[in-house]
């Protein structure tokens, strides 16, 4: 079977590989009869709705037998995978020219859109009428997981039909559809069935001549982290060597034990330093933040924890080996006596170094085991919490065990105690109140908390939240989504993902939460509580309640986003609920716009002065929000709408803030199951100056961002040094980090 005339000519090797791959895939999905039926075809195509699977199946089944043979499959795939634009467009036109589906919808009472007086073409007549177009667009919406009212579907159908029906005949011919699609050259070039990834062989893996960690871009973007790790490793090696050489005369095992002990002095003190959140937040405003990777302090804390456990095991093993040697030489005392009995001269307070060392080893192993993600995220957070509190016992035993540990610990220990006292003082000041709760259909809890007096924070900061009604001892970090300029309240947007966040959402779903008092409530108190929980007006699908639930917050603590205002060109990328730190930043920008907005008293023309000052050097901000589906855009659409209105007077080329929305569940314009819908959405957005999915002026793009094109466009703008700030899943962070290294952009990721 040869590719159709006019297609891209393949080499003999490519052609053979393609035929081999398709034959293999055919054999994996076909039955024993070597034929593919409709159900097998649906499974292989991986489509959400059956309409397109049935249409594609009918067009693939050229002989009308009800099954697809290997020959029929190869013939159709040659058109779709290697065909020219006309071949692919002809196939698309046949999918849309489906009068049978229109008749079926008419039987169940779905309204038609055929213009008055226009002739409805029969099936296969070579034209598409409005009813057929509406049927296809309806299934396109379902395939892309987009929910729009029936009236909006009619607007989309009318917009696309009026644009394509050039001669106003009441139907769209093949030539008219081709003419309309010529305005989308990139779509025509790549038009295919994107969901059927089994149709084409996988591309060969790209292999670099050297590992990524050895590239210049990698070292540029990780220079502070690598420098810190290098200094950390070098200092440990130096401490070990000095201590081991000092005790080399006492034997090899003693030298190893002393070297590890000196490293343990340093690392156990460093564990405390890495969790001094208030001190680290203060350091972010100093030049030290440009040298030391403060953003990775949690990761480094975990790394040092593993190093401490490894050093402790080696330290203990070396001492056990030495005691075993002494027991053999002595002959009067067994090894157990050396390990379990206090002996003068062994070390530690009263010669208890062996006993305190074994206790430390057990505590460290328990802390490491119960701090693993599988424990913290599986509904056993309090196990992690209480076992991690044993750090108090660990530090106490270290002071008793090592005669010199206190010298390393005195400064970080005092700072740690001071931070804890400040935190406890804030928590015992009567607590705060959650004054309003908005429950969004996307399982997001929007908490409005009264702002404490003298509570100052920067855009993008986060706090630890405790709600005793949910769990007494659990504290969880959440980014503040309100701007610092908002004086009276704090906002937190919390998505129900884990056990605690789900319990929080369900708690506020109740008409009246269960009483926390042990005694029955009086009638007056119950009426007062009901008034607290009086439901107020809310948006569609949203539950908004006034309440007075007690909570505690600990913070604020700084994040990498504090660097945004000192950047020149900032790219903010939020995935899903990862928009929360950027919501605070964007609101702060909006407040600054309002403060600097000027207007002419004569003509009432308004403009905004340059935002740059000593605290803000931004020239340009690109905000990119990637969401899985339509409902998740509800979180901050109102905020983004206000931001668009603030910049409405500015020219598009000179706008300070550019927004880019992506919906990953929506199929791209290159897919035959979505091209009509995306064209209609583009036409209607251009006509109404409003996106049909979010209501914003910014058009929501389907599919995942092409990061190479996005960052390429950012680099071409030349607005200054580019810094990329990301908050979202680690998988996406890895992809974006690689592109940043390619373009030479600095990359920062939120770490809690």
UniProtKB/TrEMBL annotation:
Instruction: Specify one Pfam family.
Output: Ferric_reduct
Highest taxon above the source species: Eukaryota
**All copies of domain FAD-binding FR-type, residue ranges:** 427-563
Task: Give the transmembrane region(s).
Answer: 226-245, 251-276, 297-318, 570-593
Swiss-Prot/TrEMBL keywords? Calcium, FAD, Flavoprotein, Membrane, Metal-binding, NADP, Oxidoreductase, Transmembrane, Transmembrane helix
Its placement in the membrane is given as: Multi-pass membrane protein
Domain (EF-hand) spans: 48-83, 159-187
Q: Where in the cell is it found?
A: Membrane
Q: Which SUPFAM superfamilies match?
A: EF-hand (SSF47473), Ferredoxin reductase-like, C-terminal NADP-linked domain (SSF52343), Riboflavin synthase domain-like (SSF63380)
Q: What is its main location?
A: membrane
UniProt GO molecular function: calcium ion binding; superoxide-generating NAD(P)H oxidase activity
What is a single cellular component term in the Gene Ontology annotation? NADPH oxidase complex
Report any one BP term from Gene Ontology.
superoxide anion generation
Under PANTHER family, the record lists: NADPH OXIDASE (PTHR11972), NADPH OXIDASE 5 (PTHR11972:SF58)
Protein name per its UniProtKB record: NOX5 oxidase
Query: Its encoding gene is what?
Result: Nox5
